[in-house]
Amino acid sequence: MLKARILTAIVLIPLFLGALFSLSDELWIGVTLAVTMIACWEWGRMAGFSKMLVQFYLVLSFMLSWFVLWLIHVDSARILFFYGASAVFWLVVAPSWLAFGWHMRHPLIMALVGWVVLIPTWLALIDLRLYGPWLLLGVMAIVWVADTAAYFAGRRFGEHKLAPSISPGKTWEGVAGAATGVGIYAWFLVFSGNTDALAIDPPWLILSTWVLMVFSIIGDLFESSVKRNAGLKDSGSILPGHGGILDRIDSLTAALPLAALGLMLIQQLP
């Protein structure tokens, strides 16, 4: 399993970086949409849809995604609605879902939840890249640093379970490790001068990275909860050693739309 994980990462990382830095905006939209559609297929499976319903959901998701993109193209301010819906979900719905242990299986509700989770993530991948590939990579790195630091801190010091009924491997010590790692990463960005163009004071930047870290953990736990309710270990098997697309982007589904929303609001400040 470890060998498969490493080999998959060796293949995926150059492909991702190549796409991020070399593709045109149009091709980037197409590639990220394809990844989003795979995630929609996995979501339908996790939601307990029948095979026919999964296929219908995939087609409907494809059409809805293009319709949303057209709406934003007509009036770019409309993207705030989708980021706002995502923010409400991650600030209110997802924490409540986890706190009360909801076991939602209603097809319509699960379909809507899938769209609220995945379509704003796709929009954020497009939107944040318009500010520059390095900015998108920097935001994604917050999640990756948090995941890596949490893993090693949890393995070394983990004793107190974070959410044993949802994800037994996660610990509060891992959360502390994630906060430490992300804080160091944020300070590195500040002292390297790579954040000057954002016009964010260093304390606010560090606080923002910690906020995104917290919601990346919520995104991870939320996907784990849905998988557990569905009786699945992984969202899919498309990535050998890693599971499915949703297994790799679960934390990003919460962090990216919130980062895009925050950046838009900052840009509108006088």
What does this structure look like?
The structure is a single chain. With 270 residues, this protein is an all-alpha fold. It has one domain. Helix content is 78%, strand content 3%. The protein has helices spanning 2-22, 25-46, 51-74, 79-100, 107-130, 133-157, 172-192, 202-230, 245-267; strands at residues 161-163, 167-171. A hairpin with a 3-residue loop joins strand 1 and strand 2 (167-171). The radius of gyration is 18 Å and the shape is globular. The mean pLDDT is 91.
Stretches where pLDDT falls below 50 for ≥5 residues? none
Helix/strand-derived category reads: mainly alpha
Strand percentage lies at: under 5%
Tally of domains:
1
Largest sheet data? 2 strands, antiparallel
